[in-house]
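Closing statement on the magnesium ion sub-project.
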Amino acid sequence: MDGNGRWATERGFGRTWGHREGAKRVDEIVTECCRLGISYLTLYAFSTENWNRPSHEVTMLMRLLVHHLKAMDKKLLRNKVRLVAQGTLNQLPPYAQRELARVIRTTEIPEPKLNLNLSLSYGGRQEIVDGVRRVAQKVLSGDVKISDINESTFREYLYQPLFPDPDILIRTGGEYRVSNFMLWEIAYTELVVTNVFWPEFGVTAFHETLENYAKRQRRYGKTNEQIVCEKQC
Ligand code: IPE
Ligand code: MG
């Protein structure tokens, strides 16, 4: 969800305004995912690198997060959305950790329509390192054999083992980079970069990115002919 700051400064406002507008789009896109029947959505809200921003911006973002969490749970429950979060969550200020834990608890419903994963203080490399540490611990305790570690068993040590790998990654704000986001999980994800800044990424822009995705052929290393044949058979 990139481009909040540029969107605001281009209009002669402070970055805070961009973050506030951006937060409104989160609500709309989540609702639209429910309407479309999308069952997994991960949002990159705050990265491990974002801690390096000026402290007043970090504080403002944390307050904005808590403000939205406080208002969020009723609507999430109405739409059958279950909230989870990923990242080094213990680095968040205690008031944000408490509020996040509360909404996660409240939305722990058995059959959610949408699983919403908030990435906070999140880094893709950190996620892999955390997974390696956990599996190494299991090897040390004798619960896991080194020869049993492979791509599919290691996947279980990542932050959200129950989430499938993403089909599509949408980056708003026009930058062609991944910025440490879900490095393991996006190995075969379709990337869509749009120049639209996040605060103006509404439902129409979202539909356009989905249409862009729908036109693609996912080959997973195979040839075009193989894919066409598989579809016809
Ligand atoms: C994304 O917008 C929001 C967060 C990282 C929290 P930015 O704040 O990165 O906006 P730009 O890239 O400066 O425009
Ligand atoms: Mg940015």
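Strands lie at 40-47, 81-86, 114-122, 168-171, 190-193. With this model delivered, the sub-project is considered complete and its resources will be redirected to Aim 3.
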